[in-house]
Amino acid sequence: MSALHEGGPRGQVLVVDDELSMREYLEILLVRDGYAVTSVPTVAAACEVLARDSVDLVISDMKLGPGGSGLDVLRAARARKEPPEVVLITAFGTPSSAVEAMREGAYDYICKPFDNEELRQLVHKALEKRALRQENSTLKERLLPGLGGLMVGSSPRMRALWHLVEKVAPGRSTVLVTGESGTGKELVARAIHLRGQRAAQPFLPFNCGALNEGVLESELFGHMKGSFTGATHERPGLLVSAGEGTVMLDEVGEMPLSTQVKLLRVLQERKVKPVGSAAEIPFHARVIAATNRRLEAEVKAGRFREDLFYRLNVITLELPALRERPDDIAPLATHFLARLAEELGRPGLRFAPETLALMERYAFPGNVRQLQNMVERAATLSDSDLLGPTTLPPTVRGEAEPQARSGEAGEPAMGAGFNLERHLDDSERRHLLAALKQAQGVKTRAAELLGLSFRSFRYRLAKHGLTEELDEPTPRA
C-alpha cells in the first residue's frame, strides 16, 4: 500500500511490521507529514521492495514472526548499492538487540510505546543524514579523483600529493596544507575529508584572517549568552558544530598570537571553552590547517608560535605552484573548458594549439585559480567555438596591458582580510620569479628587466628565500 503527499514526497519510507494496525498507524502518521510510504508485513516482501524501488528510510519492527526479524531487514537494506537509513522499533525495555543492530549500521531505534513527535524527529534526522550522505557522494564524483581539476594531469609532484591524500584521509591526525594562493588548498582539504571516515559529516572551512580577534574566538570556540555586546543567545563554535566532521582553518598564519595560544591548548586537550563560559566542552572534529605563508619563517620572525607550528605540522602536504608543473597546464585548461562547454551548452568549444602553447609558457602567478578564470573568460567572450590566442589576456600573449588614461584607473580591491604588506610581498616574489624565467636564469639580466641593481636584486631574492632557485652567474663589470 502506498500514498503520496500532494506537494510531492519528502522521502520514500518503507514500513515493515507484521501487525496490520501498526503498519496502518505508521503510514497515516508519515503520509500526513509528507512522506511517500510503502508498508509490508514480512522480510521477504521488504526485500522485494528494496530490490525494486528507491528507498530512503526503512522503519522496521524487530519482531516479525517466523519469517525473520528486523536484523534481516537491516542486512538486506545495507546490502543495497545506495543503502537507506534504517530505524528499528522494539517492544523491549532493554533493547540489547537494537543496540546490536546499530553496530551493524542501523541509524537508531525507538521503543514501544513511542511518542509521535519523537518518531517524527527521528525520521527527519535519519533522512537528513541520508541527504547529506548523498550530497557528499555527489561531491566525491565531482571532485575525486580529479579534485575539481586540481589533480588533472600526470606530473610526478601531483601523483605524489594524491598518494599522500589517500594515506592520510582515513586517520584523525592534524594536517597542514601549504602552498601559494590559488593552488587549491581547500580542494585538497575537502578531498581528505571525503576520502575518510568522516565523509557523511560536515566539512566547515573557516578563514582565520577575515575576522578580528574577538569574533574569531567566538566563531571557533563558541560563546555564552551575554558574554559580549550582541551575544543575545548561546552559540556553539565551529569545532563543536562540526560534530565528527572536519574543520579547515584556512590562512592559519594570519591568526593573532593571543588566539594561537588558545588554539594550541584546544588542540592538545580536545576541548573548547566558549567565550564567557567557565566550563570546557569536548569536540571530536578533525582539524586541517592551511596557509600560503612559510610558517617556519613566521616562527623565526616571532609572528607564529613555534609550539603551535609543531602541533599543526603533524602531516604536511605541500601543493606545488602551477609554474612548477607546466606539463599539467594544457590538461587542466582542457578539463575546465570541457566543464564550461557542458554548462554553456556549447559542446564544440576547443582550444587552438597555439593558444595552449601560449598558456604553457605563462608563469601563472595566480596558479590554478587564475587558469580556471582565464579559461572561463575565453569561453564566455569568444564568438567562435575555436578559442584562438586573441581570447587570452595581453600578458599571456606577451603584450603589455594597455595603460589607463589619467583619471581612469580603478581603485584596487581590498576585501575582508586584505593585508597590504602581504600583497606587496606576493607581488614582488611573483615578479622576481617571472623575471628569472624570462631571463632564462641569468640573474644579471633578470635584475635589468626589473630595473634593479644586481645588489638590490640579490637582496630581494634572499628576502623571499629564492637564493637557491638557480646557480648565480657572475655579474658583469
Q: CA-to-CA gap between the ends?
A: 94 Å
- What is the fold named in CATH at topology level of the largest domain? Rossmann fold
Profile the largest sheet: 6 strands, mixed
**How would you state the average pLDDT, rounded?**
83
Walk across the major sheet and give the strand order.
1-3-2-4-5-6
| Overall geometric form | globular
What is the H level of CATH, i.e. the homologous superfamily of the largest domain? Answer: P-loop containing nucleotide triphosphate hydrolases
* Uncertain residue segments: 1-8, 140-150, 404-410, 469-477
Report the count of strand segments: 17
Q: How large is the radius of gyration?
A: 29 Å
- Taken as a percent bin, the fraction of beta residues is 5-15%
Number of domains: 4
Task: List the total number of helices.
Answer: 18
CATH class category label of the largest domain: Alpha Beta
Region (Disordered): 384-414
Modified residues (4-aspartylphosphate): 61
Organism: Corallococcus coralloides (strain ATCC 25202 / DSM 2259 / NBRC 100086 / M2) (Myxococcus coralloides)
Keywords: ATP-binding, Nucleotide-binding, Phosphoprotein, Transcription, Transcription regulation
